[in-house]
Amino acid sequence: MSFTTEILTGGSPCEYLPISHETRLKSAIRLVYSYSCVGGGLHIVLDDGNVEDHHIKWCMEEAIPTYPWTDTIGQRACMECARLLLETPLEDRKRIVDEYGREWW
Questions:
Q1: In the chain, how many domains are there?
Q2: Which domain range does residue 25 map to?
Q3: How many angstroms separate the CA atoms of 59 and 53, rounded?
Q4: pTM, whole model, 2 decimals?
């Protein structure tokens, strides 16, 4: 079970409900912002709009692990969001981050 599914369903059998990839990604972005109003370790992606693979991978390797989280849920949310972003076609990433990233709050 993915972290986003766990958050959305509470780990219930509802995890098998068909939730679209885009819905999971939008939920993950909102979850990241609920733990960090600047996008946490994904700031350069979510707030600055740098959505290319190398930016996301850099965040996963360097920024997310070292971001000063107050708990591990924010860090897990960031990693799940990054994973979902990498699974999303680039044009869709740009659109979703523009709509739900820096513009969301």
A1: 1
A2: 21-100
A3: 10
A4: 0.81
